[in-house]
User: Fold this.
Amino acid sequence: MAGDPQARIQELRAEIDRHARRYFELDDPEIPDADYDRLLAELAALEKAHPDLASADSPTRRIGGQPNPVFSPVAHVVPMMSLHNAFDRNELRAWAERVQRRLGDREAGAYAVEPKFDGLAISVLYRDGQMARAATRGDGRTGEDVTGNVATIAGLPRRLALRPGSGPPPDMLEVRGEVYLALSAFEALNQRQRDRDEKSYVNPRNAAAGSLRQKDPSITAERGLSIWCYQLGAIDGGPRLASHTETLEWLDSLGFPVNEHAARLESLDAVEGYVADLEARRHDLDYEVDGAVVKIDDLALQAELGADAKAPRWAVAYKLPPEERTTTLRDIEVSIGPSGQATPFARLDPVFVGGVTVTTATLHNEDQVAAKDVRPGDTVIVRRAGDVIPEVVRSVPSARPEGTVPWEFPRHCPVCGQPLRRDEGAAATFCANFGCPRQVRGRIEHFAGRMAMDIEFLGEKNIDRFVTNGMLADAAGLYRLDFNRIAAMKGFGAVSAENLRASIEASRRRPLHRLLFGLRIPEIGQANARLLASSFETMDAILAAAEDDLAAVEGFGPVIAASVRAWFDDPRARDLIDRLREAGLQMKAETAAGSAAPQTLTGRAVVVTGTLEGFSRDQARAAIVARGGKSPGGVSSRTLALVAGAEPGASKVNKAAEAGVPVIDEATFVRLLETGDLDAADPGAGGAEISGPES
Assistant:
């Protein structure tokens, strides 16, 4: 963790976000699970050591990825959470000790242990015993509706198989499980792909995820997907279940596929023995596993232990160690990323490791290459734990050819030839040339991406051609392209050039939050872009916002505010925004126009804190936005009122007092929504009763 922690945190968040999108949204991961877990662990450790740099939008607090807009969104009845990891017996015992501390004098009791399947998490909802809906995990709260595809999975019941005398089915039952592709089915699928002279799939997990997201359920049906069911999400009716083990037995009785290796164990020693046995026979199974899930068996204790922002406290994923193989390192090269970071990587003789044929592996940075002393010609140990890009662990000195010399990091960018820069105390090396073609391409690729301006028919290859030919230097240049010239280029023609022109034209209408995300502003991902747009409503208001006003945006704080303010103060950013404005892009946020609610709060900010009786926090904010208002996360001098429920945040209440912002109770808030008049809404000028700190 040497160097600037803020810079490292920013680097980690960007890297994790990129890998998370490839894993959760594109089904095309670049790095193994173990590498991703290490990045998250490093970020979590840095945030713990530097709480002032923590962020509500951090990947350490997020679950899954954004739902694919191709499918209809589904709000989960109960959020689908992630799991915290344990990588060895010490971390497993540390988890158990944390559980015991929360329980005090009471014993945690037995553990329920199951294999951790390498597939795609799914939620299946039954009403009156009939399958009604199935959804992917998505971001944990909202998933993708894949009902038609899940209905093709042969082992999953369409109607519950109730035993005689068991009574009617539950009115509502939500079952959680893991969709996977058996290794035998994966091999058969790839054989069919080869027979058709089509591309093979790299591993069963990617093939399962891609199969589940087919638009045509008949394609999903022919893939041979399977499912293991391992959890109840929600239930209305049905028996009273006391333990997770009883839950699995009940699900099995209803006809759900429950893994035969699930076990109830009385001690952590037994759990460790289970994991050791699972590791020894993992290759005897017809499906991939990457660990074991350990749960407190008692459901009442599970409810008491609860969850943190990302995962339940009563469960942990005990990860198996990644697999390793040896191969020959042929060369070390340096790639330049969109941000200019120069990253060394190894060119390898092809090796099959962890279910994938690997030809390249990351070497991270200059120090890592030196510390591992890997050289072209070396026999190296390659480790892969999850998916595409593995890691070179170390060389095998006894196999080193004579005459090799240590590899030296280049001093000039391999793309533009300009000097590379490595700041004192930093691990990363960068190309400092803002105009480096690779960086230019990277910024434009991000701007045109699906979650930003969504410009179709462009693609990395065309961006590369346009930049190379001098037709494109930044995102604003997209709106000045010469389409007659493009139509005459090899591989285009009038139709494809017109398709690109129409897509670029359509991007002018994208809302402000999409533009903010596309600008690649440090710290501004999709969620923060929405918050920024809704809090200030116009680009001009953001440009004029003081750093304190930016810090008051929910989840921002001083660190993000300073970074955002610095980006907007850069003359190059101002010039880019001016040219995008001239191109006709949207510089205003989406409004509540067309809402059935009266626009009583147009342009005004109302902050909510504490627990309200008639509204959840999200519902209260939605009510404000539906009436044309804003609901930022912090109080500022521009706040109309602070709505304080039970146990409000003391910092917000104190800030309101300092800024002269009225503090109102829930009844007054309801009248404010109706009238928009704070005086009329609060005739008695009675503030909220402050009952304690916000939980």
Remarks:
- Confidence is low (pLDDT under 50) at residues 682-695.
- Residues 5-25 form the longest helix (21 residues).
